[in-house]
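Work Package 3 (structural annotation) set out to generate three-dimensional models for the target panel prioritized at the project kickoff. During this period the team completed the workflow that converts sequence records into discrete structure tokens, so that structures can be stored uniformly alongside our sequence database. As a representative example, we reproduce one entry of 317 residues exactly as it appears in the project archive.
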Amino acid sequence: MSNFWIHHSRKVHNVFFAATLLAASLLANIFVAPAQAQQASDALTLPDLSGLVWVEGDVFLGVHDAKRSSENPRISIVQLPNSELKGVTWRTLDLMFPGPAGLSNDLESASRIPGTNAFLFAESGQDGDRAPRIFLSIYDNETLKIKSYLEWPVPINNVESIAVSQIAEQLVFIYAERADSLPTTKLRWATLSLNPFKLEKFDEITYQGVDPVGKGARPIVALDVDSEGFIYIVSAYDPGSDDGPFRSVVWRVGKISGDENGNPQIELSDVKRLANLDGLKVESITVRELPEEGKQIYIGTDDEHYGGIIRLLPDVF
């Protein structure tokens, strides 16, 4: 072969090799560089919903179980998705907590005062607080203000559920201990006055856990009462690990009404399973009652490491 063809062949080879290197470099920039530039993102959006209460329309108040020393949110406005909003949105409320104890400690439950824009929020007492509190708040124009509080008038260990019902003209406050790993818990109720803000003597009835039961089962972790007095609760299983697995069951367990003398009484009867939620730790329940849609049940979760969700249950009425 002549020197010309050898030299020309080498030039072609060198050009081809350089073009190959350039193409490889461009491909590396296209396929590798973006991956190297990406940042890991936190999938959590909505924090835990240890308490949940319907306000109006698609608006709810969510309670978060922050400890006193934490800067985490206590109460938020939670907005359901609609034609303009994709996904659940939430906004933390800046609150002033009255009394010498300052910031709330382990808020776990909430309830609306029927027929009003007033709400109760309760500390659980889990951390051995000497004086866990119940807060009376007013919601107006997307603003929540805590007006007053009272210390729990009875000893409590770990309350994660409260509700307020109305019998004739009388308000009735209801609560239950979560009773971790115990077969039963007590539903307790007392008449409630707002001015002055106080609770009278409590009555009680024993609730026998049905499902889940055994170690890690919590007979009542959420509670609400509808306008007819029907009582809804949530029972949950928590293995003690923030990774789960969790399990929850929603029940209708009875009704609160007035006896022959008009005194409030709770009858646990016609117990009905409304929903099974495997993999979720439900800690809040609220009934939304709209004229055009009737009764709807919403639940909120505290899935620990996984955050919280709010969901509408299938029609159970």
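The two ends are 94 Å apart (CA to CA).
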